[in-house]
Amino acid sequence: MIRERLSEIKAALPAGVQLVAVSKFHPVEALMEAYDAGQRIFGENRPQEFAAKVPQMPSDVQWHFIGHLQTNKLKLVLPYASLVQSVDSLHLLEAIQAWGRANDKVIPVLLELHLGAEETKGGLTEAEIRQILASEWPFVDIRGLMGMATNTDDESVVRSDFERISALFRSLRNDYPFLTELSIGMSDDWPLAVQCGATMVRIGSSIFGPRQY
Fold first, then answer.
1. Would you tell me how many other CB atoms lie within 10 Å of the CB of residue 190?
2. 96 contacts 112 by C-beta, under 8 angstroms
3. What is the average per-residue pLDDT within 83-109?
4. What is the pLDDT of residues 43-54, one digit of tens each?
5. Of residues 108, 11, 10, the one with CA closest to residue 21
6. Distances 210 to 22, 62, 87 between C-alpha atoms, Å
7. Torsion angle, alpha carbons of 89, 93, 98, 102, to 10
8. Phi, psi of 107 (to 5 degrees)
9. Please, are residues 20 and 202 in contact by the beta-carbon 8 Å criterion?
């Protein structure tokens, strides 16, 4: 089933849009089924689960961390992550920069824009993102933006959220052409995200089904 679902989604994605298979809460056996079907990018959001899965999977897997990352958990994630998608505060970015300096490693990241109506959602303001991009981060490679739309069935609200982050992304690229990635869209709304310019979508349940643990 995983192979079939994965094949359907990949066939529907335009060229140039990367698929991140969100594998949180699913066992390594499920990840290996996706891997055997050709999937190489996997997304996790819990540091302990992330660190436990890495050595059980083939070495050519690209691991994306997509959840809230506490600064005391950096050592579980940063040695292995090919991209930290969810930098949601200046404090976290500064901690990643410090870890990178101490370990002589440049960490690729996306800056998470606070999108949607929920106050509980993390993320940076547009002003904070502009301030960060105007500063020097020798041990951080900022590659673009990430966002999560309002949790609603109202498509117009979701589209509005996606259009807002997409407009910011296009505006920033005028001054910072190294920004190449816009990570928006999940299982329920990824087609809309693609319409709004996503270069990366994060899809879990539509590939793996309901969480298994």
1. 21
2. no
3. 98
4. 999 999 999 999
5. 10
6. 12, 23, 27
7. 130
8. -105, 120
9. yes
Instruction: Determine the residue type at 91.
Output: H
Q: Which two tokens stand for residue 5?
A: 């679902």
Lookup: tokens for 110: 């996306």
Q: Pull the structure tokens for residue 67.
A: 């959840």
Q: What mean pLDDT comes out for the span 50-63?
A: 98
One-character DSSP codes across the chain: -HHHHHHHHHHHSPTTPEEEEE-TTS-HHHHHHHHHTT--EEEE--HHHHHHHGGGS-TTPEEEE-S---GGGHHHHTTTEEEEEEE--HHHHHHHHHHHHHHT-PEEEEEEB--SS-TTS--B-HHHHHHHHTS--TTEEEEEEE----SSS-HHHHHHHHHHHHHHHHHHHHH-TT--EEE---TTTHHHHHHTT-SEEEE-HHHH-S---
CB atoms within 10 A of CB 1: 10
Is residue 162 a contact partner of residue 184, using CB atoms and an 8 Å limit? yes
Other CB atoms within a 10 A radius of the CB of residue 90 amount to: 15
Whether residue 122 has pLDDT greater than 90: no
CA distance linking residue 93 with residue 86, whole number of Å:
10
> Do residues 161 and 174 lie in contact, with contact meaning Cβ atoms separated by under 8 Å?
no
Buried b (16+ CB within 10 A) or exposed e, 56-76: eeeeebebbbbbbbeeebbeb
